[in-house]
């Protein structure tokens, strides 16, 4: 992969999206790929703790607070109003990578894998989400429509191979991201 590519990991709450993302990160990093992630949070979140200097800066009115150490840095940015940042806007802020795994943002993704566990008793997303190209499941059998690939949820190497073969390259120009088929 010469340029950044996107692959979404989607599914209902409790399906195991984060667990799969972590396993994929370990597998793909071991292959020498630079992999970044974007995770959508449905509710407000705070990486800061009350009483810490950065929290005090933010609550006093700072629009952005950058916290840095010798080993990492984080930028906290306050959003105006109820508008959510778009996936292209977020990607444009990231450092170059070979692959970006995106958890959430399912309607904005060019391509995704759904984690589906029938035992959760929740409806699958693939019937109404055309971006889903594969379903990773722990079900021994699963009736899928033609063109939708079934992946064994416990076979990380096969899922990683699918990700590498089907992730969509993206070009970022200013604040715009365009996904196109490789």
From TrEMBL:
Residues of the Molybdopterin-guanine dinucleotide biosynthesis protein B (MobB) domain: 6-138
A single BP term in Gene Ontology: Mo-molybdopterin cofactor biosynthetic process
MF terms (GO), sorted A to Z: GTP binding
Positions of transmembrane segments: none
Tree of life domain: Bacteria
SUPFAM superfamilies: P-loop containing nucleoside triphosphate hydrolases
Entries under InterPro entries matching the protein: MGD_biosynthesis_adapter, MobB_dom, P-loop_NTPase
Signal sequence region: none
Protein name per UniProt: Molybdopterin-guanine dinucleotide biosynthesis protein B
Species annotation: Gluconacetobacter asukensis
Encoding gene per record: mobB
């Amino acid at each position: 992969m010469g340029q950044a590519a996107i692959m979404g990991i989607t599914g209902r709450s409790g399906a195991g999206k984060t667990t799969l993302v972590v396993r994929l990160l370990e597998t793909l990093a071991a292959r020498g790929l630079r992999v970044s992630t974007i995770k959508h949070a449905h509710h407000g979140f705070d990486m800061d703790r009350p009483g810490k200097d950065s929290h005090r800066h933010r609550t006093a009115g700072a629009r952005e607070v950058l916290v840095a150490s010798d080993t990492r840095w984080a930028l906290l940015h306050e959003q105006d109003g109820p508008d959510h940042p778009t996936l292209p806007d977020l990607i444009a802020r990231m450092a170059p990578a070979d692959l970006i795994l995106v958890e959430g943002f399912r309607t904005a993704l060019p391509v995704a894998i759904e984690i589906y566990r029938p035992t959760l008793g929740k409806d699958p997303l693939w019937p109404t989400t055309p971006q889903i190209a594969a379903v990773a499941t722990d079900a021994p059998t699963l009736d899928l429509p033609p063109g939708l690939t079934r992946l064994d949820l416990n076979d990380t190497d096969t899922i990683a191979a699918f990700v590498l073969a089907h992730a969509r390259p993206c070009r970022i120009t200013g604040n715009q991201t365009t996904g196109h088929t490789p």
